Amino acid sequence: MKISVIGSGYVGSVTAACFAEVGHGVVCVDIDKKKMDQINAGIPPIYEEGLGELLQKHAGKNLTATTDYESAIMKTDISFICVGTPSSEDGDIDLSIVRAATASIGAVLAKKEGYHVVVVKSTVVPETTEKFVLPILEQTSGKVAGKDFGVAMNPEFLREGKAVYDFIHPDKIVVGAIDQKSGDLVSELYRTFKCEVTRTNPSTAEMIKYANNSLLATKISFVNEIGNICKKLKIDTYDVMTAVGKDSRISPRFLNSGAGFGGSCFPKDVKALIGKAKEIGYSPVLLESVIDVNEKQPILMTEILQRKAGNIADKKIAVLGLAFKNETDDIRESRAIPVIAELLRLGAKVSAYDPMAIENMKRIFPTIEYSDKAKDALESADACLIMTEWEEFKQLDSEFEAMKEKIVIDGRRVIKAKNIDYEGLCW
Ligand code: NAD
Questions:
Q1: What digits encode the pLDDT tens for the residues 163-218?
Q2: Can you identify the CATH homologous superfamily of domain 2-200?
Q3: Do 170 and 161 meet the contact criterion of CB atoms below 8 Å apart?
Q4: What pLDDT, on the 0 to 100 scale, is given for residue 161?
Q5: Full-prediction pTM beyond 0.90?
Q6: Which of 277, 351, 373, 410 is exposed most, by the fewest CB atoms within 10 A?
Q7: Active-site residue flag, 18
Q8: Residues of the chain with CATH 3.40.50.720
Q9: Rounded distance from Cα 176 to ligand 1 centre (Å)
Q10: Are 373 and 353 in contact (CB under 8 A)?
């Protein structure tokens, strides 16, 4: 089957490359010409393990990229909308990019003969596919959904950093369609995947994605709260949660307390669900607390720092880890951002290091000092904060020797070095 993938960010580029890998013909569409040129040249527009290899293998063959909606939609049978759905200022979902992409698809459908299915893969709040995307498609195409074209919602559950693996080896595939025909065509794309397809309606598919992410975010804020209580009681929260995770109803995953969750999904998705709940007259107190705990957690890092180092004005503070998690260059909602902002507010000089995310962080903090190696960031620093669980930080040891004061505050429980003034965030 021939597929067009609208939006070539983390989800779109991985979706396109993986569908090409399983044998479909794929056309990527993005308004960013540079990204399209990169994909056509077999270069990933973002870092994801294994993505480069897949693009090298399929670019120019069964995978092409263009900024031209018309050529892409005309020669494909199914279009996946994979554009961003950021938070608006009040935290609600901002659907303006989905609106623009949908209208562009609809304008081509107006001219296209034959049946076409439009699939929303972007994370959108319940009712969006049927009450927002579908009407825009009908208005802009002048055609009728369910008769002239199909509509479905197929949420994506991949983890950044492991996105290619997760796409090809999913735990679940959810297809929510407005009718049997749309659902059958979308499900058919996944025929070779060793995973059952959960068939449902679009709103249920949308809600599955939010419930999934909200539960994971809740688990993290829960363990962080338990960690904060444990620390005051001088109990090791990792011992506690390791035992708790042995309960088969709980699972050991997502039980590491630390500086909180970031990334492009958990914070914005929990906030979007809060917004949707309020819109329909429900007060989501638990979800609001999940966000509250997460926002306080990074600030605890700087509170510990001030307790140990005193006034940090003009002191050099090394921040190791800028990406929101390891194995990615993505800094969206990284917990390092509020920490660096707070350090700057307190007058500290920040020296930062990350194996992948420096270029992205320079856009937010252009004036702080960046180093190519952890050792250089630590040179004559008065203290160090660990913000990302990079594997290489586990090996750091003699590098701390170069610090002026060997105060190390670990937000991710990764540091193994001895002979430092170590303190964990919740342990
Ligand atoms: P992204 O910001 O990395 O990529 C979005 C892409 O869309 C960009 O390349 C942008 O140039 C392009 N774009 C913007 N306007 C466009 C238009 N009118 N037409 C065509 N392209 C356009 O976003 P992402 O992280 O890939 O997320 C996409 C969606 O998938 C979001 O709804 C997100 O919540 C969801 N999601 C993301 C992840 C993740 O781990 N990143 C996982 C699951 C679901």
A1: 999 999 999 999 999 999 999 999 999 999 999 999 999 999 999 999 999 999 99
A2: NAD(P)-binding Rossmann-like Domain (3.40.50.720)
A3: no
A4: 87
A5: yes
A6: 373
A7: no
A8: 2-200, 299-424
A9: 20
A10: yes
